[in-house]
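#structure-requests
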Amino acid sequence: MRTPLSRARPVLLLAAALLAPAAPAVEPPAHRLEVDEPILPIDLIDQDGKPFSLEKGRAGRPVLLTFIFTECPGPCPFVVETALAAARKAADPKDPESKPLVVAVSFDPKTDTPEVLRAYMKQRGFRRSEAVFLTGDPKTIEKLVLDYGVMVGRSPSGDITHSFQTVVISRTGRIIARYYGFNIDGDALLADTKRAAAPRSAFFDFTMKTIDGKDQPLSAYRGQALLVVNTASKCGYTPQYAGLEELYRKYRARGFAVLGFPANNFLWQEPGTDPEIRQFCASKYDVTFPLFSKISVKGGDIHPLYRWLTSQEGFKGDVKWNFNKFLVSPEGKVVARFGSGVEPLSPELTGKLEAILPKK
């Protein structure tokens, strides 16, 4: 009986579980299922005893996530090493974010201490640039295993049995394929890994967290003209919230939306939590346009969405301050960029907006 995956930088997830009784000499080929599902967050401790978050740790890369335990005699190493082989072959040397990160979560955190995991990595030849091994609280790991859908069931004789699952997750944070069983077709897995490692080629490839913490694929806005703005609550430009809301109400019936992304990059002018930001925007400016969870829009921890926005031909360059604005066409292309000083209702901005509004 399979526990369905409930929810979750691109990722290849492999769930390797115990086999009891022992695996037969010849296993049937793993079953592949193509899906489109979100990944779940993972917050555990790595082999160096440091906190590791899947969302931050992958940094926009695909990930090969395996559930293992170091004393597993055969299947666990096989699955992990199959993942590593696919990861190494799938990466584009010219694109660092295309290289999948192998992440292995221990089933047995009491035995698999950080020291044991470090030794296991060294023995198996895993370099730290390509792999991280995780441990943590047993109850947290148990829930994680079940949430990620590791297959657990009973054989006809009544024995408890476990099986292997390999889940391929793309750079956009979506599960694109699952493999059931450990006898995986290496060529098929490599093809899925390459697909997962493919770069985001359009604005609509991204999935973002709303201010309420829900996953929101930006593909939901396909066909609309969009103004993407990095916002802040304690900035001299904060009153632009009023202009943005007026702009939204004026044009939304014609296929337009403002997308607000709070950011704390500039003199810590957005220190609030998501609930505090939402309350401020609603009470002070009666904001109804879509707001998203706070992100970073520049620097080493820049969100992949803003890395994409600031790398588009003709509009390259770091965001300089709060309330920079990107105008995105209904087809997902950046067509204009405005600095903080350009008011939302200025002719400079509205003229370009009206030129790309969907035709009736």
